[in-house]
């Protein structure tokens, strides 16, 4: 069983999406600053904070979140708090994390988006099933190693034992229910955010203003450091956001068919190449003094033999990739379309998975240091005419065929050329603003909260 993974999930559940009567625990024997008198402590499901009529934060959840905070701070050399004010500060921080999620669920209900659709419920269940199967694979392996007659039954026993060891106060069935609740809450909160963001709207003036702001900021930024263009434009092409409306000099677009070896080198390759390096060093020392000609001759023989061996190993390692890139080159030589050969033979998803890069090619700077292209590939691309493709180029353990699409036109792009991208970025910014403003407003609204300090103020004392 992957203990670290289960432990990490337990911590995540405690801090981010802890649910009603389910609470998580620390590694056995390592819980930080537990409530000293367990007999006097409230029940774990005692309500610490009411959030409207439907939601609540329990004593157990606050205790576990508090302990986790103390544990995290200990990694920075901070001891568990002992002063009353410090303890209450930690309690309040733990409460805030837990209450935040409940408040969002409360507001989702208020706005009518608190219920999942049948498809969303099915998707949540699929996530739970995948998680449970992941854990059960480990427990089944342990049960098989033990020689259990009923592997599944023993695996479930092991699951329950693991949950008990981490003081998670549930069996595997309850744990699955817990996961469902966690994922369901996450989906509700995503739906709530989508609902609020859908209220954002912009007009033509907003688009123009956003464009003007981009022109101003990018003109200044790229004048100071033109290499920023590569990072910012590629980020836009891969992830969306702000497009580059200003283009500095010195960039072109390139497509690449890249092929990589799929196997592994012979296990002795590294050892043999290390021995060759030792021979080179020894030979160099002897050559400096002209001493021991016999040993130098012996080293030459040994080195040559190792080189034959390692070259053969490397050729075997690369042979399938070499055959594939040669086949791609032959298709191009026969008149094949570069994009079609790229789709059928290329193995770098950068050139196929991102629509804008697949259409335009990937940015490349004409000068080294302004992008992440290898200089050998840069030299090959710069030697091409627009629309032409290169011979096979090897860089490290990879083969490439490059196609130079063309130069990137420098200057400020007019709004009509980039309107849709700017409009999308402006709307995204407005949606971010609307959501942030709504969150801030909700943060200030505690009207639905009822705190029961007598339940949780003993934690950590």
Notes on the structure:
It comes from Candidatus Aphodomorpha intestinavium. One of its GO terms (molecular function) is peptidyl-prolyl cis-trans isomerase activity. InterPro entries: PPIase_dom_sf, PPIase_PpiC. The chain has three domains: 208 residues, no CATH class; 138 residues, Roll (Chitinase A, domain 3), CATH 3.10.50; 50 residues. The N terminus is likely disordered. It has 461 residues and is of the alpha+beta class. α3 packs across α6, α4 runs antiparallel to α6 and α10 crosses α11. The protein is extended and about 85 Å long. The two termini are 35 Å apart. The strands form three sheets. It has a four-stranded antiparallel beta sheet, with helices on both faces.
Structure, briefly:
This protein is α+β, with helices and mostly antiparallel strands and about 450 residues long.
Classify the secondary structure makeup into a structural class: alpha+beta
Low-confidence stretches: 1-36
Strand order of the biggest β-sheet: 5-4-7-6
- Gyration radius (Cα, Å) is 31 Å
Say how many strands there are.
Answer: 9
Q: State the end-to-end CA separation.
A: 35 Å
Helical content stands at 55-70%
Mean pLDDT: 92
Number of domains: 3
Annotation field: number of helices: 16
Strand count, sense and closure of the main sheet? 4 strands, antiparallel
> Which word captures the global form?
extended
Q: Roughly what fraction of the amino acids lie in strands?
A: 5-15%
* H/E element order: HEEHHHHHHHEEHHHHHEHEEEHEH
Secondary structure layout:
Layout: H1 3-15, E1 47-51, E2 55-58, H2 59-74, H3 84-110, H4 118-146, H5 151-165, H6 172-197, H7 204-224, H8 228-239, E3 246-247, E4 251-259, H9 269-289, H10 293-333, H11 338-345, H12 350-353, H13 355-360, E5 362-365, H14 375-382, E6 393-395, E7 398-407, E8 411-412, H15 415-444, E9 449-451, H16 453-456
Antiparallel strand pairs: 1-2, 1-9, 3-8, 4-5, 4-7, 6-7
